[in-house]
Amino acid sequence: MSGILFDKIVFGPIHSRRFGQSLGVNLLPTNKKHCSFNCIYCECGWTKENDVFNLNFVASDLIAEALELKLVELNNHEENLDVITFAGNGEPTLHPEFDIIIDNTIRLRDKYLKNVKIVVLTNSTQLCNKKVLDSLKKIELPVLKIDSGNEETFNKINLPTSGVKFNEIISNITQIDAPIIQTIFLRGEVNGVYVDNTTDQEIYSYIEVLKKVAPSLVMIYPIDRTPPAKNLEKLTKEDMKKIANRIESAGYKVFSV
Known about the structure:
Elements: E1 10-16, E2 20-26, H1 49-53, H2 60-76, E3 83-87, H3 98-112, E4 117-122, H4 130-138, E5 141-145, H5 151-158, H6 166-173, E6 180-184, E7 187-190, E8 193-196, H7 200-213, E9 217-221, E10 232-233, H8 237-249, E11 254-256
Parallel strand pairs: 2-3, 3-4, 4-5, 5-6, 6-9, 9-11
Antiparallel strand pairs: 1-2, 7-8, 7-10
Helix pairs in contact: 2-3, 3-4
């Protein structure tokens, strides 16, 4: 499965159920996915091994130019915009000029649309890079992925390609004050191995991790688009409500899609 890929640097705005009117920014090549994970549910498809190492990124000045053109257009037409969201074809923090890009985005946002917030959707694998960590601390909405509360299920769901360890990711996330955590809940079979992060024990270990990272908000959602792993189950609204109730009972604010 090739997956869904964005063919532009800047796209939208589109309506996001989580963030409102969102202008997307893709820092990765438009023809293939680049990621340090190989998540079994990723709408972009599987991560190919050579896509992790043979990277060809768009220069930060070209990204700033494309973003400024769009912000000028939105400002001139007085169009509503709530957020600028860094997502795209994989992991945005892999861009070697990520810190420069964030600084440019803050500058342009402040110049044209001061009330707009900046979102970065990240798998947190690059938080060991001080420049990335410091950049995420500058924005309003760093959204960090945690799909499990333990190493075994983390490896089954996220299939890390970078050798990063689960406990290292959690430790690094604790360096960000009141992060937003996003989590996909699923169950099914992948290559003959059953995967389920919805059991009582899984939810318990997940909440124990939340206690460590102290999130301001937990965003949970089921599979929405067709995943590369075919035998995964989309949870029902009832399933998601039960999980949300468990998390809320532990004292955390939950947004459930």
